[in-house]
Design a protein that fits this description.
Glycerol uptake facilitator protein, 9 helices
Length: 241
């Protein structure tokens, strides 16, 4: 499998399972309706784990432009490959969101809440405060990129054990679960520009019953914040480790 296809499919899996758990909790008359934040955070942690296991051997499973660009800034990924990865991640996120829409097709019409429908696709703030929301996304993504780089250092692995291949994706999923539980309550922790922008485009373009606005006035925050945070997290790792 090519790295482009791996990033596309991996990001699609991430969104199918991640946005899928939000749909299960938010949309009306699902089996998981109103099951709460813990279910969403756990679902996203498992989504990341599954997606990383699926394509890690083909592309490194970035699945996130903030990770790709952050790694490039500290010379751990070639800049020439950045556009290829980012385009694949965006396409995969859009595809994954469209599949979630299809999977929950009967539930859009019976869900009256337009904000809830948007939440299935993209993030939004608990309190709309642009500066605070931006800081939240920067901090969450910095923790993500710094955490991935620090946790998966060779010093943390048992020599010749295959630990990095066998358990690294689970550790990344654990990290994302921790971020969701500890830092996700402010903005819904996009921590990934593709995860928010691709599905937001899907929300705007798909014929979703009674969908309302795609909230483009907020959309820059889960793009700019994670990009800054990814570069910051990588820089901190390079300076301290």
């Amino acid at each position: 499998m090519s790295p482009f296809l791996a990033e596309l499919l991996g990001t699609a899996i991430l969104i199918i399972l991640g946005n899928g758990v939000v749909a299960n909790v938010v949309l009306h008359r699902t089996k998981g309706q109103n099951s709460g934040w813990i279910v969403i955070a756990a679902g996203w942690a498992l989504a990341v784990t599954v997606a990383v296991y699926a394509v890690n051997s083909f592309s490194g499973a970035h699945l996130n432009p903030a990770v790709t660009i952050g790694l490039a800034t500290i010379d751990k990924f070639p800049w020439a490959q950045v556009p290829v990865y980012v385009f694949a991640q965006m396409a995969g996120a859009f595809l994954g969101a469209a599949i979630v829409w299809l999977a929950y097709l009967p539930h859009w019409e019976v869900t009256p809440d337009q904000g809830g429908k948007l939440a299935v696709f993209s993030t939004g703030p608990a309190i709309r405060h642009p500066v605070g929301n931006l800081i939240s996304e920067i901090v969450g993504t910095a923790v993500l990129v710094l955490g991935v780089l620090a946790i998966l250092r060779p010093e943390n692995l048992v020599a010749n054990s295959g630990f990095d291949k066998g358990f690294a994706p689970a550790l990344v999923g654990m990290l994302v679960g921790s971020i969701g539980l500890s830092l996700g309550g402010t903005t819904g922790y996009a921590i990934n520009p593709a995860r928010d922008l691709g599905p937001r485009l899907a929300h705007a373009l798909l014929p979703i019953h009674g969908k309302g606005s795609s909230d483009w006035s907020y959309a820059w925050i889960p793009i700019v914040g994670p990009l800054i945070g990814g570069v910051l997290g990588a820089a901190i790792f390079k300076a301290c480790w």
